[in-house]
Design goal:
- The complex is a heterodimer.
- By secondary structure, chain A is an alpha/beta fold.
- Chain A has helices at residues 16-29, 77-83, 103-106, 116-123, 131-138, 144-154, 160-170, 176-187, and strands at 4-11, 33-37, 48-56, 69-74, 87-96, 125-129.
- In chain A, β4, α2 and β5 (87-96) form a beta-alpha-beta unit.
- In chain A, α1 packs across α7, α5 (131-138) packs across α8 and α6 (144-154) packs across α8.
- The two termini of chain A are 27 Å apart.
- By secondary structure, chain B is α/β, with parallel strands linked by helices.
- A 7-stranded mixed sheet of chain B has the order 3-2-4-5-7-6-12. In chain B, strands 15-14-16-17-19-18 form a 6-stranded parallel sheet, with helices on both faces.
- The chains are: A alpha/beta, B alpha/beta.
- At the A-B interface, α1, β2, α2 and α3 of A face β8, α11 and β21 of B.
- β2 of chain A pairs antiparallel with β8 of chain B, so a sheet runs across the interface.
């Protein structure tokens, strides 16, 4: 199998590492070779962060190159735009439709771009949802990323039950139920 | 998932280094946290029933702890980030002469691309200067195996061995095969002053042995299993090591490759043989041309930094462009506002910088989350060099410009950094009659690297309770009369104290204390809320850059309650009383 490339981008502190861990454990369970590359340290303090997950028969490089991502998962709109050029021509972009102003915008030194989703939709296959609002409805705003994993899972070739098994094994025991509910919500989203 | 021998796990490079050390029978490990090396100790502690590991106050101490263990016949390790190697370089350069008893491994984690560092130095250069052999793995599985082999090589050649990693290796995960822990017997301690006490006469003799050892290792490198030669199409040959090997494999599957595991001393004969068999030779190494310059000095023609950068990380696309000359059909990146890291919501440093800014004070900064006080809109931190330097640079500026000049300045340093090397600088201020003001921004943890304990937290890396060094009394004991502890969020008191202490003609220490908002023991006081009726849209609450506050469509302040950590700082900044801290229900 040709190596599949997945990227998860967002704002430091949003939980991109948990998401990549779930994806990594999933692909491993399915018997693939896998490499995951993360960002730790200073960027985790509210900076732009990116995580790469690559899986296939034999994976060498641990990062995804520009123009090569099969799936780009963005936890925030501006971050979707920042990394959209990493997508393959027929790649899928899944966006959490929320706005988080970076400091240059907050202090008026830069403008937050308008109509990001509309503009990206002209070039790419885009699935957007306000996962945070959905997560709040479920009772915990922090599980928004598991909703997004559900949306992504629908577009990947793995069994739904295996996903749920992996989530059960990866998240904190106290949060298993709400994470599974979040995953199901995302999986059935569109 | 359990970590049982005989099973496989997806592991972070740093976790794999810890696993390799565990399997090698390491008994003592010491480190100071620093990205990208921190997770080595955090993973090693999982095996605490079978080994000892600690956070030391700095890398020099950590290295010496490991050296002491090695002298007495057990396998020992010290791990640190690249700039930590500088701190530890004093013992490093000399232990290379004395050699080891139990295997001694130093992990040096470089940071090409500066994800979380103040420079982009190449530890291989330091190791060359120190005459310390270096091995370099290229993925997590190799990180485990190489670390294990490093202990064997250390004992075989009677030398400390450096395992060099980079951020990409340290923070990438791949499949790792777990093996049993080796049952390594302690070697007997034998008194040997000629070998273990480095005075001029002894060191003179040892220097010759070091030169011989490096020569021998270079020769033995010819068939060392850590070096791998893959002959393929011999029109193009590549010499590489570490993470760049993965990019070469991705981009040039047809090329012949010499993948070096031992990167210092270089296996000259192996390299000469490989070079003679390929028509065109490339050297692919991140950062400095360490391999390339040596190979060129032997009269071998090769191409490296003429077409490849010394800055940042490499990638497959970078090699496609530079070596294969491919023009890649890639959409340009969108021109979007940057998202630099910033102080977190609820961070106690914000409040201190807000007051300093108000008082028009300048800060000599240091290394930690609080270096972010240099970023807009705060921009209070104006200078910063390395760990502990805030206090000594403050002292230097006073000696340069006088005691009136220093009244406009303060040093800002965190609690962990203060204990790392700041305390020596403070001693110097007392000794050499300084009058400056030092603010210790005490959030009771090592924040930036992810909340590691230190000598003033009352907990060890192994999770045991211990004596909590009292920073207040430590400063007092140095002879400083004016030591004041203030709640970091009490802006009124902070303002008063900063004014008073900076005006004083004597050294002062202000301890601005409040727990890091990301610490596991942090309990938010509540959530902040904006009364939109009272909000005058002046933007004062946004002046100290809390990521939880932004402007709503109508220009009034809006607080994202999922981000707010309820510190109340914004409420204190609002001149119209439009923001209030709603206490949490307990």
């Amino acid at each position: 199998m040709e190596t599949k490339n997945i990227m998860i981008v967002g704002v430091g502190g949003q939980g991109t590492l948990l998401t990549s861990r779930i994806l990594g454990n999933m692909t491993r369970k399915e018997g693939y070779d896998v490499k995951i590359s993360e960002v730790h340290g200073m960027a985790q303090r509210g900076g732009s962060v990116v995580t790469y997950v690559r899986y296939g028969d034999n994976v060498a490089e641990p990062i995804v190159e520009e123009g090569c991502a099969d799936v780009l998962i963005a936890f925030e709109r501006l971050e979707a735009l920042r990394y959209a050029h990493f997508l393959k021509k027929d790649g899928v972009l899944i966006v959490n439709d929320v706005r988080m102003d970076p400091m240059p915008v907050a202090i008026g030194a830069a403008e937050y771009p308008e109509n990001i989703i509309e503009n990206l939709s002209k070039k790419h296959k885009v699935i957007s949802l306000d996962a945070k609002a959905e997560a709040v409805k479920l009772g915990n705003a922090r599980v928004f990323n598991t909703i997004i994993i559900g949306v992504a899972a629908k577009r990947m070739d793995f069994d739904k039950d295996t996903w749920i098994e992996v989530i059960r094994e990866t998240v904190k025991p106290k949060t298993v139920d709400i994470n599974i509910a979040a995953f199901n919500l995302g999986f059935d989203f569109i | 998932m359990s970590e049982k021998a005989g099973t496989q796990m997806v592991m972070l490079g740093n976790a794999a280094i810890a696993r390799g050390a565990y399997e090698a029978g390491v008994k003592v490990s010491a480190a100071y946290p620093g990205t990208p090396s921190t997770e080595i100790s955090e993973n090693l502690v999982k095996y605490k029933d079978e080994l000892y590991c600690e956070w030391s106050p700095n890398e020099k101490v950590a290295m010496e702890v490991a050296i002491g263990a090695s002298f007495h016949g057990v396998r020992a390790m010290a791990s640190m980030k690249h700039v930590g190697v500088n701190v530890a370089s004093d013992p490093l350069f000399t232990i290379a002469y004395a050699g080891v008893n139990g295997g001694l491994v130093i992990v040096a984690a470089d940071d090409p691309g500066l994800y979380s560092s103040q420079n982009e130095q190449d530890s291989r250069m330091v190791a060359r200067a120190a005459m310390v052999p270096v091995i370099e793995p290229s993925d997590s599985e190799e990180a485990r195996i190489f670390t294990k082999r490093a202990f064997e090589l250390s004992e075989k050649y009677d030398t400390p061995i450096m395992v060099r990693t980079t951020t990409r290796l340290a923070h990438s995960q791949c499949i790792v095969n777990l093996e049993e822990r080796q049952d390594i017997e302690d070697k007997p301690y034998v008194k040997n002053i000629a070998k273990n006490v480095m005075m001029p006469a002894m060191a003179k003799a040892r220097h010759l042995i070091v030169e011989e050892r490096m020569k021998k290792m270079s020769e033995d490198g010819y068939d060392l299993d850590l070096n791998k030669v893959y002959y393929n199409d011999t029109k193009v040959g590549v010499i590489t090591s570490g993470i760049p090997y993965q990019y070469v494999k991705e981009v040039m599957p047809e090329a012949s490759v010499l993948k070096l595991g031992l990167v210092h001393p270089l296996p000259r004969k192996l390299i000469e043989e490989f070079a003679s068999k390929v028509d065109k030779l490339y050297i692919v190494e991140e950062l400095e041309p360490v391999i390339e310059e040596q190979v060129k000095s032997w009269g071998i023609k090769c191409t490296g930094k003429e077409i490849l950068t010394v800055q940042g990380e490499y990638s497959a696309n970078l090699l496609r462009k530079a070596i294969l000359g491919q023009k890649l059909d890639i959409e340009p990146a969108a021109d979007v506002p940057a998202r630099p890291p910033i102080l977190c919501p609820g961070c106690p440093h914000r409040s201190v910088y807000h007051v300093l800014k108000k008082l028009k004070k300048h800060a000599a900064g240091d290394i930690g989350c609080y270096t972010l006080g240099a970023v807009a809109p705060l921009q209070v931190v104006e200078t910063s060099a390395c760990m502990g330097s805030s206090i000594s640079t403050l002292h230097g500026l006073e000696k340069a410009k006088g005691s009136e000049y220093v009244k406009d300045w303060v040093a800002c340093i965190g609690d962990s950094t203060f204990l790392h090397t700041g305390v020596n600088s403070l001693m110097n201020m007392v000794y050499n009659k300084a009058t400056g003001t030092v603010i210790i921004m005490d959030n009771s943890t090592t924040g930036m690297t992810g909340h590691q304990d230190h000598a003033a937290t009352g907990k060890t890396l192994m999770g045991d309770d211990t004596y909590m060094i009292d920073i207040f009394n430590l400063c007092k004991a140095l002879g400083i009369e004016n030591v004041v502890e203030v709640d970091a969020f009490d802006m009124k008191k902070l303002e008063e104290v900063i004014k008073e202490e900076t005006a004083r003609d004597a050294v002062s220490v202000i301890i601005a204390k409040s727990l890091c908002a990301l610490h596991k023991d942090f309990v938010p006081k509540g959530k902040c809320k904006v009364d939109t009726e009272k909000c005058k849209k002046c933007g004062m609450c946004m002046a100290s850059a809390c990521p939880a506050i932004h402007k709503a469509a109508d220009g009034s302040a809006e607080i994202d309650e999922t981000l707010c950590n309820g510190c109340g700082h914004c409420a204190g900044c609002c001149p119209f009383g439009a923001i209030s801290l709603i206490p949490a229900n307990r």
